[in-house]
Amino acid sequence: MIAITSRRDDERLALAALVFGALVIGTTPILVRLAACGPAAAGFWRLLFAAPLMALMAGARTGGVGAPTRAMMLAGLFFALDLGCWHYGIRYTSVANATVLPNLTPIIVTLVGWLAFRERPRALFLAGMVVAIGGAVVMAEAAAPGRTGSLPHVGDLLSTATAVWYALYFVSVRRARLTHSTMRVMLWSAVVGAPLLLATALVMREAVFPATALGWAAALGLGLAHVAGQGSIAWALGRLPASTAAVTVLVQPVAAAALAYFIFGETLTPLQTLGGALALVGIVIAQRGQALIGASGEPAPA
Q: Is 12 a domain residue?
């Protein structure tokens, strides 16, 4: 009886950490807007400010940060592409669209496993995929005129591309995690990704340095959110069933959309809200189908 109670307490703590991490990550689109610098530059500051904290945490747990593996370097490359596309997406489209569309990642990961490795998904996943993609299309097309950013279709496309890069990042991290700790992998992905984002900012002739004190505070906040948000989610997912990861899908876009409404006055049309809800429900269903594949003993998608 004591063991069961202890296990339930651990699961509740992990669930609380998962929700907390999702809420923290939900603030990052707002911080990117407030950083008062270029999109890629905001990604650079995010990783630069996060790296010292992750180095301290990685060193305290493992006795040193070691050297990066090939998988860690690939993770850094894909994460730089992920942040670059996402931050530009945040600039060009609404915060709600830019937060919902990247969450198509689990669908893309499973599709890659299906097409490349013949890991056939279940019908439940396919149903969820159809609902999610349909909802994403409705959300992108039903936005209120003038309230979606300067180039909404470009922003939506970049936000969707973020899901592809994050899927590749996820696969690389999963490979690196076979032999190294989560914090060490996150650290080296940041060390590799930060110079790539800085180079992108310079090539695109972005404003590299935040122009205001609020911008610097937002840039620092991005670094803290990266460590606290991603760290909490990574810790929680190691202690919860895979299907519970759907909580992050539900909480993060809702938090980001609410903050965008209060800070930037971004509103959603009823049809856009319906499309976003359908997309999130579809992703949850697809994740559930994906979890069932792993639980059944069949090969789970990478």
A: yes
